[in-house]
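Q: I'm writing up a methods section and want to include an example of the input and output format. Could you take the sequence below and give the corresponding predicted structure tokens, formatted cleanly so I can copy it straight into the document?
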Amino acid sequence: MSSAAVSSARAVPAGRDLTLDLTRVACVVLVVFVHILFTGVGRRADGSLLIERTVEGQSWFDAASWILNIMPLFFVVGGYSARAGWRSAQARGEDAVGFVRLRLVRLAHPALPVFVFFTAALGAARLLGIDPGLVDTVAIGIGSPLWFLAAYLLAQALAPWMIGLHSRYGIRVPAVLLLGALATDALRFVVAGGVLGIPHVAATGYGIGSELFGLPNVAFVWLFAQQIGFFLFDGWFARRRARQLLGLIVLGYLCVWGLVSLGGYSGNMLSNQWPPTAPLAILAVVQAAALALLNRPLTALMRTRAAQSAVLLIGSRLMTVYLWHLPMIMVLTGVELVLPFPMPAPGSALWWWTRVPFLLVVLAAVWVLSLWLGRYERAPRMGDAPTAPVLALAVALFLAPVLAITAYGLDLLLAACALVATIAALALVGAVPLSRSEAAIPARTSRGQ
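A: Here is the clean output for your methods example:
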């Protein structure tokens, strides 16, 4: 273990719940691993390129996705952090504008080099005349995780007001959000059934017909998960006994099974992720209960210096890992294709055995990349706070192209739009450094920040 890692472990702020840091890191590493399982690349007998989503062809995958899709938990933990962060911000005399601006910058700043890369890579591919079909396949794949930027920022931007509603109305807030999610799903399924005469149309692998009617659930579902995080912060789950938490988990899964059995919903929880559907909201409760149930062993684990060092090291580069792991997977796979390396056939026994080593290689490669990109994890020095309308415009500017990429697939035009919009959003909130030498403000280490 390096001396820097040991120092990081010793510098844990008092009162910080490291089990939440562990949860964030575990969620992102699991996302990376699932994407590796999805990326089946090899060559056919005739030497032609084979690209498939290998793991989806497995009979067990739908059932496994009920556990493997941990994005609801990420929003739950985000809600916990937002609740803690807003309390700290109020204690320092900050208002909602400062709170939201910081969260916008912490998402948009790391995304900036990603959009530069996508714009340059897709532009170069067009100039070089690379097969557009292959470019579209790869671009849609590496752009797929970007939905998180829009959904998470939307939830965090509304957090101060949602916390106020939570304090006033409690359980009634998530109840209304869940009803909204169910109503949105019902409308979407009615449209998909052609009852309103609106056809389902697919383009570049993404729906642009009935799926658009599910967009309100970007708010309903993920705000619901965030509200569950508020309850986690308040200690509601901690006050439940183990058997009560187990009962909540079982009841939640029964509700998910009931919804899937009704039809319309996919048995694959990853397929329910865009647009998000009500089963994911219920999974947020299940996963929050599971996190509370595991709190004691996780706390014991995080008392060890090795676990603290690993979690704090990876946690300081978490956005870099999330945003860059798929481009790195594609780059490493491309290297395998170009160099005379034997590539196991996707789905073969050897392919499965090499997935964990490949995960370690990807994480190591992203870590090397983070030695330079890690600076974007820190908020740059910021000028005067914007007015509320200007901040709202900045948030909308950043959200719009990201949502478009998620709905229609990544291409050169949308990548360029996202790049311009991200620069504009950062400029509007006064978060663009004046020079390369300008020092960056380290991320706050107080609990929830």
